[in-house]
Amino acid sequence: MKIYTKRGDSGKTDLANGERVDKNDVRVESYGTIDELNSAIGMVSMRKYEDVESYLNEVQNHLHIIQAQLACVEEGRVEITSEHIRLVENWIDDCERELEPLHSFILPGGSEDGAKLHNARAVCRRAERRVVALVKEGNEVGLCLKYLNRLSDAMFVFARLINQREGVEERNPGY
Asked: Which of 16, 116, 138, 141 has its CA 20 to 30 A from that of 26?
């Protein structure tokens, strides 16, 4: 298979059903932002924290499901399920057992991987906004919004956990 087809040279792309749309179509923007989120997660190296590495590997597979779900408008497609969401909630709960409760906002940053996870959280929130735009146009997205909302919470907790494990103190904003 050739990597370039030249079909996108005019600013159009194919949806999974073969429909040609502009590359800035809200559907393409939504699953493109999911791809960006997946890439941001791929930049995080968690080899010394096997639990978080395992979570992130699974998240990347979930994000591929969301991309397929958002790109495909027919029945019988792959979909994010309530089980995926429960899994993310379980990870959050497991991580929070190790963390001190928050009493105020914190600034994103910290260790290199903690900062990358904070960045992934922000990209996740943007992806969520893009999917909201897709819904506002009348598109069905199943449980994608709920999953992304929970995932951004998970990215925040993962960042806090890694920073704590790395001995990096959380900083509060000054007002």
From this structure: 116
Confidence of residue 75 (pLDDT cuts 50, 70, 90): low
Q: Are 42 and 119 in contact (CB under 8 A)?
A: no
Angle at 53 between CA 51 and CA 57, to 5 degrees: 120
The secondary structure element, H or E, covering residue 82 is helix 82-96
- CATH number assigned to the domain with residue range 12-165, chosen from the 4 options 3.40.50.2300, 1.20.1200.10, 3.30.390.10, 1.20.1740.10: 1.20.1200.10
For residue 74, what pLDDT is reported?
66
The rounded radius of gyration (Å) of the Cα atoms in the chain is 18
Question: At residue 76, does pLDDT exceed 60?
Answer: no
Q: What are 15-42's pLDDT values in tens digits?
A: 878 889 889 999 999 999 999 999 999 9
Residues near 32 by beta carbon (within 8 Å), at least 6 away in sequence: none
The kind and range of the H/E element at 14 are strand 12-14
Token pair listed for 147: 């999953």
pTM as predicted: 0.93
